[in-house]
Amino acid sequence: MSERSLLASIQKNGPDFTTYGCEITVAVLNASIPSRSNVYTIPLMYVNVAIDISVRTYRDPQIPPDLKPTKVESKPDGLEVLWPTSLPHTSFYPWSWLRQHSYDPPLRQHEKSSEKILWGSKIQQSPPTVSYEEVMASDDKGLFKWLSNVDKFGFSFVSGVPVTLEATEELSMRIGLIRETHYGKLWDFTADLAKGDTAYTTLALGAHTDNTYFTDPCGLQLFHLLSHTEGSGGSTLLVDGFYVASILKELHPTVYDTLSRIGVPAHAAGEPGSIYTPTPRNAYPVLRHHQDELAQIRWNNDDRSVMDHLSASEVEEWYQAVRLWHKFLTSADSEYWVQLSPVVDNHRVLHGRSAFTGKRRMCGAYIGVDEYRSKFTVLSEKFASRPASPETSDASVRETGVWNHYL
Ligand SMILES: [Fe+2]
């Protein structure tokens, strides 16, 4: 049925729903339905969900290719679909869910919570900060504020954290499970080379991300300076990798392309009994993209392995690119130096430190990106002021549970 004849049919008979193979076209013109006039297509999904465990209990391959609804009926809050007796079930799709998953045309709305605020050195005037009391409060509002800061800025400070391992661990666990690695669970280190890594020295460390030698680098990194006596130095360096990349893309697009295309092998081999390299070894560039959007920074010159997978011209191209990348990373406009310990999005913000003297004790933890995003998603559902859908404010169809748009 053409769109025009479909519209004519709807105007005459009310809402109409037409299936085409694995799609359903939903046409909504009826004034009784809380929607702007529109026609859109969604994937036809046989919805048979176990609400309590938020998983589907059918197997997609067992759905007959010619499956069609017996009846489709519009309701104030969504669409009710009755399936044939061979697979007897009634599905209900909230309007908000239908709009979120329509693809012809796509009607989904961008999530405000995922908007990133890029920053340079001027962020020192007002760095994102929450208090320890806020984060630890049982109402979770402070925790949401903390993770919202990290989502927007790629880092946040927490003020007033007691300088103990126990308090640092409790703070980390507010987000999720601590990720144990070959450095241990909660690290507690001094400049004693207890581990074969430059972090365990007094050396200055240039801006870098951690775990470039892992296939899945940690999502968050939490630092906490417990003590520093008999010396000075050891300032924290933060650089917004997405900010630097945005400048590079504007001014030197070919260099940006090189850093987005050429994979960089890395390794961690300082510990006896372990040699970590990402899998595949050469698969991950400095600037990793997803659907043309920058998704992750992976950069640690100290962990880089030999670039033996490139041609001679590519080697030259890559070295030229990293010279410029380094120049922008280390510019006064990019570098934010501070004497505080942050939590950092390791997929976006690079960290480093100045050299130091004296005795310095630092602790911290890695948290997986999935743990961080899970907690942030749950709290976004709980606190975000986003309406349930453009058409209705009915809380019953708010995007929670199985109708969360991620599911
Ligand atoms: Fe590091």
From TrEMBL:
InterPro entries from the entry? AlphaKG_dependent_hydroxylases, GBBH-like_N_sf, TauD-like_sf, TauD/TfdA-like, Trimethyllysine_dOase
Is Metal-binding given among the entry's keywords? yes
Keyword flag Metal-binding: yes
Q: Which residues form the TauD/TfdA-like domain?
A: 125-366
* Pathway named in the protein's UniProt entry: Amine and polyamine biosynthesis; carnitine biosynthesis
Q: Which GO terms describe its biological process?
A: carnitine biosynthetic process
Q: Which cofactor does it need?
A: L-ascorbate; Fe(2+)
Family, per the entry? Belongs to the gamma-BBH/TMLD family.
Descriptive protein name = TauD/TfdA-like domain-containing protein
Q: Which GO terms describe its cellular component?
A: mitochondrion
* Keyword line: Carnitine biosynthesis, Dioxygenase, Iron, Metal-binding, Oxidoreductase
Which Pfam families did the record assign?
TauD
Q: Which GO terms describe its molecular function?
A: iron ion binding; trimethyllysine dioxygenase activity
Q: Which domain of life is it from?
A: Eukaryota
